[in-house]
Design goal:
Pathway: Lipid metabolism; Phospholipid metabolism; phosphatidylglycerol biosynthesis; phosphatidylglycerol from CDP-diacylglycerol: step 1/2. The chain is mainly alpha-helical. Helices cover about 75% and strands about 0% of the residues. It is globular, with a radius of gyration of 18 Å.
């Protein structure tokens, strides 16, 4: 059940994008509703996995990937339509680049039989990213709240970018230390 919720989050990205790009007066409200449903699955998939004992390597790999895909899709679309502009684009780049770097480092650690454990601060980072994207969707033209929300939404985006950079630096440091360690099979005895 937990993996179904995670897959649902990934699958919802496509109708989210269609709603976002639709040329109708209610498109941003529909996109926000789909985004919220997808974001809520992030809480429930972990809750279901823990309470039902459904934790798995697949779920551990797909859950953060689903988060990254959803947030990245939203930020790219919001940048495309100009809700995120100017220096806000730097915040988007910080988020996307960090997510790619950390994902690559996790993949590089796979053959060593180790991984980067998710930190509590990284969970807050994901929450901030989802909140920023949701608020920016609500602040978009024709959004649920409108452009008066944009300064606050932009502030949450920068908070998410700072948390993203901070946690990324920690993961990079940890990954480099682990990658410098010799493999067990390469050690001389």
């Amino acid at each position: 059940m937990a993996n179904v919720l995670t897959f649902t989050r990934i699958v919802l990205i496509i109708p989210f994008a269609f709603a976002f790009l639709a040329n109708v007066s209610w498109n941003m409200k529909a996109a926000l509703a789909i985004f919220i449903i997808a974001a809520i699955t992030d809480f429930f998939d972990g809750y279901v996995a823990r309470t039902r004992g459904e934790t798995s390597a697949l779920g551990a790999a797909l859950d953060p990937l689903a988060d990254k895909l959803l947030v990245t899709a939203a930020l790219i679309l919001l940048t495309r339509n100009g809700v995120i502009h100017g220096y806000g684009v730097i915040a988007v780049l910080v988020i996307i680049l960090r997510e790619l770097i950390v994902s690559g480092l996790r993949e590089a650690l796979g053959p060593k039989g180790t991984t980067l454990r998710v930190t509590v601060l990284a969970k807050w980072k994901t929450t901030a990213q989802l909140a920023a994207a949701g608020l920016l969707l609500a602040a978009a033209p024709l959004g649920a709240v409108g452009e008066s929300l944009r300064p606050a939404a932009g502030g949450v985006l920068w908070l998410a970018a700072v948390l993203t950079a901070w946690t990324g630096a920690g993961y990079i440091k940890s990954a480099f230390a682990l990658l410098k360690e010799p493999n067990d099979s390469n050690r001389t005895q």
